[in-house]
Amino acid sequence: MRVLCLIHEDDGPAGLFAEVLRERGDDLLEWNVSQGPPPEAPESFDAVVVFGGSMHVDQEDRHPWLRGQYELVRGAVERGQPLLGVCLGGQLLAHAVGAHVGPAPRPEIGWHEVGLTSEGARDPVLGSLPERFDAFQWHSYAFEVPEGGELLAESPVCAQAFRLGRSAWAVQFHPEVTREMLELWRSGSEGTAPPISLEPIGRWNELGRRLAHAFFDQVDG
Fold first, then answer.
1. Which one of the listed residues 30, 108, 154, 176 is annotated catalytic?
2. Which of 45, 52, 67, 89 lies 20 to 30 A from 78 at CA?
3. Are 174 and 86 in contact (CB under 8 A)?
């Protein structure tokens, strides 16, 4: 299996998902799209995973490459290519298919409780997670569920996951974050973000692995 992992900033890599892919013996291309389009056609991969970033979907003037991301994500949906959007990646998916994305009622930074909906509990990907769990979050924007999509998880603040059709998923939280990534993000935001404990990261990585395996199992299946 070959997976295209699209990142938007060098400090926001595929993280745990890259580890899982390598453990499974699969190939991945990790590409920072802010440096230009991927060197291989997205449709040549078995799946696409789009990760996070500090930019927003209403900042195309500052980040003109965002428009190319909308087209790439929309193309994957239209051809039924397995796709997972994480945080900004989920917002890109929602925006690309016409759903509203904008400022959340309040930011979620750190560990916040998320609950699966009844549809989420039955979902082959999100259903790999407990009914309720503390998720690592870092966002101030949020997506609405696209027309025809299914809400799979939510927090008191906003929608946290949806599925569109049979092959596209979005999550607002960060299942890919590793201890090393979290330490880097914490140090880079000292004084501008609330204190974030490292203590839950071990359990969170267990859940992140579950989610990654569940998504890649859908691709393999």
1. 176
2. 52
3. yes
